[in-house]
Write a structure and sequence with these properties.
109 residues; Subtilisin Inhibitor; 4-stranded antiparallel beta sheet; Subtilisin_inhibitor; protease inhibitor; Prot_inh_SSI_I16_CS; serine-type endopeptidase inhibitor activity; disulfide bond
């Protein structure tokens, strides 16, 4: 294969940390050699991750979204391989709306 593997498992759960949150949903996202998986927007999520160099903290928030200030924390985890490198990521958002606005499509599942 000409492409290093990029295969990720993303989860979301209610809570402030992955250690205490029960995963509510889990999706798979494979970006090489082609976009596939159970993520609802594989092509755009892979394009967004490539644009950020695989850096989840560099994903651009969707500026047009207004969210309430309700505190109902959700935690997203990402584990797997991105372009041949092991990856483990965790991020807590104030609520589901803020999570969905945290990227164009990667966190929208």
């Amino acid at each position: 294969s000409l492409h290093a593997p990029s295969a990720l498992v993303l989860t979301v759960g209610h809570g402030e940390s992955a250690a205490t949150a029960v995963p509510l949903r889990a999706v798979t996202l494979t970006c090489a050699p082609t976009a596939s998986g159970t993520h609802p927007a594989t092509v755009s999520a892979c394009a967004e991750l490539r644009g950020a160099g695989g850096d989840f903290d560099a994903l651009a928030a969707d500026a047009g979204v207004m969210c309430t200030r309700e505190y109902a924390p959700v935690v997203v985890t990402v584990d797997g391989v991105w372009q041949g490198r092991r990856l483990s990521y965790e991020r807590t958002f104030a609520n589901e709306c803020v999570k969905n606005a945290g990227s164009s499509s990667v966190f929208t599942f």
